[in-house]
Protein 1
Amino acid sequence: MSDKKEPLLVVKDLKQHFPVSSGGVFSRVKGAIRAVDGISFEVNPGETLGIVGESGCGKSTTVRSIAQLYRPTAGEVIFDGVDLCKLPEKELVKARQQIQMIFQDPYASLDPRMTVRTIIAEPIEIFNKRGLLETKLTSLEIEDQVEKLMERVGLNKAFKNRYPHEFSGGQRQRIGIARALALNPKIILADEPVSALDVSIQAQILNLLNDLQEELGLTYIFIAHDLAVIQHISTRVAVMYLGKIVELADKKELYDNPAHPYTQALLSAAPIPDPVIEKERQRIILTGDVPSPDKKQRGCYFQARCPKRMPWCTCHVPPTFEISEKQKVACWLYDENKDYSKVSMEEAEVDAKSNEAKAAADALGQKKKSK
Amino acid sequence: MFNKKKKDENESGAVNEFDQVVEGNSLTKDAWKRLRKNKMAVIGLVVVCIYAFLSAFASFLPLYAYDEIVLDHQNLPPSWNTSAGDLMMQDKLEDLYFTSWKEGRLLLTDEQDAQIREWIEESKTTKVWDLVYTEGQKQLAAGNFAWTASEQKKIDKLQKEIETELFITVNNVKVDGVKIEKLSSDEVAQIYADLLGLDSTTAILEQTQKEMRSLVQNDLDLTDDQRAVLSEEDFAKRVDEAIADMGEETYQQKVVDNLVGKVDAQILRNVTKELKAQNTEGTISFPYDEMITVDGNVTTEVIATLKSNRHYLLGTDYSGRDLLARIIYGGQISIMIGLVGTFFSVFIGIVLGALAGYLGGRVDYIIMRIVDVMYGLPYMLIVIITMAIFGRSIMNLFIALGIVSWLTIARMVRGQIMSLKNSEYVEAARSMGAKTWRIIFKHMIPNSLSIIIVYSTLRIPAFIMQESFLSFLGLGVQAPVASWGSLISNGVSSMTIYPWRLIFPSIAMTLFLFAMNFFGDGLRDAFDPQSKNQL
């Protein structure tokens, strides 16, 4: 199905590095935290792309970079044929109407000093004031829209003069969803919208999001660290590790037949609600910690913890291999051209060094050219 | 939360199934509820309100003028029912009894003599006076003691003074029911001439003209050196120019004012003579307040009181000014300094703190280093230097205190803004395309407001203390204007003899500071959602 439609959002080699500086007036940049380090994917209209990964792997940074809350260090975010990264702030506002966010913490994402009415009306009012809506709305029309939105997300419109702290977590998240819907966006970036909620409430919110998608034809990028949630809502799933996408596949493919060693480990960590199977099941337990994202990685990002590591992996960053039309993996195990398991450490090092020298020469040549 | 109210037009929709209006419970409302549960804070608020009311409406209260010097009434002690005259007399008698005791005419028991000597050693003069006065009065009544002729003369003289000295004010001088200020200069001059018994007004008008010219000449914008060089003619020329600049109408009005002042003074003189005569005859009772006809068609309101009839509830100070009035008017100044100083410092603090916090980077670094450097300097020194450079006035005092006191609030606001900058609701606002100013004013400032309010209320007493300290050093407000600090500083100098001059201003100030601090503490608790007195 992905071939037939023009993708709604294309992310190409997106990098988001946060500089670490020494502080002071004449601060020097000492290094960078590579929160997102070169990821590429496409999102088709009407689908839900789930992004999953452990804490600190760059999930949230990815959606914030797409929403241009941070200006990406490098790469492109093409929405409706326009590269958002290169747009000036004034024109970006128009794109913001189409891209809205739902935040993780329903307690922190609503201004405690505003009533529900004001919170939901805020995006409409901002765009109305700037004259970016098709027709200028009167305050009564805005009022009307707010009420409709509240009913649409399952909130009693009688509560519109209340303040966020008077609501439960699930209700607050509904307010957040209503706010995201206020401008009729095409795509909604949901940053762990259910992580802070009870399981029963999670189901309600997920069903609400599903219903809204069917009714309004929305597209979601949905972040979660709960594999069950992702399985429930996604069409396709991207697995992230240390700022890279290690595997991107259709939901069924990924859950039935995980290819990347990290995905396998991740899935094996998810509990299965059947005590018999759970008891017999063999778990893959990873050793070591996630490396710090402030260093440039020489080899595969996962190699330090990988149970299937080969000498080749320590000095070669894997490209994305397409094992089927619906599944892409970044792992040397799936390179059809060569079997790397027999390459010794020395050979790998020699190859890596020559590659690095070549890359350096290329970079130098490019510099000269540009001069 | 559910109020049984009928559906309102503009609140349509905010009504639940049972037709009850659903109202939001804002954080501010919550805070107010919590504050009302805090008894000390409410008492503090009430006290602060009373103070604010008293100082705001001081000029409408039945007080003596705070800067009215009555030299006879120096250092009178506080009293509820004894009039100033009686106090003066008691004061005199104490003095006389003491002299006669020293001369050996007032005989006391050996025990009392020893006691008095001991008190004198310890310089407890008030106790000595009290003792000799009570003993003396007893002996005088019993006939064991008599005044000498010269002493009796002094007492009689004082008694006469007390009985005859009057306060007379002349208001509302009217001619045929028209206020005298509305008349032309010729008419007023005529009235003045009639009062003096002169035939023509020429001399009067000439005199006034001369006075006006010399007034204008004094007001000319010239340095002393220039004045020394200028000749008579030059002066005359310049004065003519100045008068021409003023315009005919303004000049005439000034002439009328000058003449009216003279008429008032003359009427006062005449009335005083008459009232004194009546007083000696005993045909008048005080307080006296009547419209009288002065001369033909000129009428005026005369208010007269006996000086010695005055009551000073809190006593008087070293130049006979009413301490109660001075404390209330002093409070006006002190509270104003607290408010204006806080406003200055909070305003500067919010602007700079918000800038530093939101923009970050180099701006933040520079502003914060300035704050650090200013913190490092002894702030009282800066205030004193500023006052020395720009001169001593209330306005300069505000500025000097404002300059040094925005530091803490700037740091606080910066910290608050920095933490709010990364909060999710600000990110949400940014993701929906809100501009920077909207984020600062709609999201950040309202959310920092509670700490700013709390800080400000706790800051007001600090300002009053600082002003008091400066006044104590002699750098604050200047006499006759009073502030609590200057009153206390004056009181300290004669603490042992006239303790009320220190005690009452101190109590007034302490009470206010306590109230303000309790109120501020209450506010802090009320605005803190984690506080224990939850609803």
Protein 2
Amino acid sequence: MNLSQVLEIASHTDPGMVRSHNEDSVASVAEKGLVVLADGMGGYNAGEVASGMATTVITTELRQLLEDHPPHEVDPLSGQKAAMKMLQEQVAKANTSVYQASQSQPQYAGMGTTLVVALFYDNKMMVAHIGDSRLYRMRGDEFGQVTKDHSLLQEQIDAGVLTKAQAKHASNKNLVTRALGIDPVVEAEIHEYDTQPGDIYLLCSDGLSDMVSDEDIGMALKALGANLNLAAQQLVQMANDNGGRDNVSVILIKILREYSAGHGLASKIFGWFR
Amino acid sequence: MAKLILSMDGLVLKEIPLSKERTTIGRKPHNDIQIDNLAVSGEHAVIVTILADSFLEDLGSTNGTFVNGKTVKKHFLQSNDVIELGKYKLKYISEALPGAAKAADFEKTMVLRPGAMRKPPEPQPPAAAGAAPVHVETMPGGIGHPAGAPAAAGAPKAHGDTQVGMAAAPAAAPAPAAPVRRAMVQLLSGANAGKELELTKPLTTLGKPGVQVAVITRRPQGFFITHVEGANKPTVNGKPIELQAHALNDHDIIELAGVKVEFFFKP
């Protein structure tokens, strides 16, 4: 099923106002309903190598896999959706690639990357994430964060040490507790969500979420949701206007209509006329 | 780090970070920024950068060096200054704040590896230790910096292959400068003629969804109007705006979806 008519996708990435190079990496494959965003870390240009490797491995491998394997099918043995397994395997593959490069090349030692991937299929999306790159959802007037950061700050919030308001002013915003490519194995957090026509999803690096309040991000999406490209540029501009201390990347996905995988001709035709 | 954006005829050619103390500009190849154009002298000008400040000096060029349209011999560069050499333009963009480069290091995303944490930036919650694979080890001699104490600002940066436990990280950088002036829009025609609205939000939309919508964005540089949706673009003082954001001036008249709106700065 080609999803390019169902999903509207816009992305924008910018080095920000302070950094000289961009360690973020974004990729999307509209017809397969796949979007990937990674925020690399590591000395010199190793950060962009890590994020670039992760996005490339995941998009090329998944694009291939999705040709032959419908993501909505349930594996009878594990009871898991194929999409879940695909994401697990490809994240593991990306992790191995980055980890091995960092082990074999001294200039890449210690590099790693955060990751957020969303795969859309059958009126659903499977989201995998590692680290503090986020996925937000705008449904109607409601705007909120879907993923939960793997960061020290989030752990402190969960433990009740810090309130969300205090967290805004915390100094350790940039410490992630999980990253891809740092250790031989990594576990991505993967969940499935239902989608509805009209939903707008935002994937972003911490360069946006640290510089612009959730409230302002929501306002921008509400005001500019009709023009996704402009909204993406506006978000980056807002981060830069607020100081732009880090690379800023955003991917926006709007669900234009239903995209049931269709288990027969009748449902396909029904879906067409809805 | 401050940077220059080289452009010709409005086309951006490249971005040059001012990483050296002396950045030379000229036609000859040994210059840091070589501009191969006969209007540019062999050694045309030099930019001396000391910490966050950059000074431009003309090196006795034949055709002169212009900053913002004025010929200069020596000039203390301000952010957004435009240096002109012949047909080429170099826009100078300074870093946001003198301390920004330093602060930026702390902004970098870093991974906190299980077992690698040497010094807790905050007292660790007991629950977190159970919930997450984070071990807390206190480095000998590493204690004694209460988090948030001013003395901590001078504490050495965490080092080693993995940078963790940044008690020395400064508090969030100061909020960016708000736009200098407050602005309003007033409806001049339509059912709500006379109604005024102050532009307090970063974004204010105007128009009818599905028909014609524009947005006014409030930025540090001022107020800008951008077309969002609809077949027609809004007009400012009778002229349709382009695709990109259009800067608004005092008493500009915006027209969209059949309604006239005046933009003005608050006295």
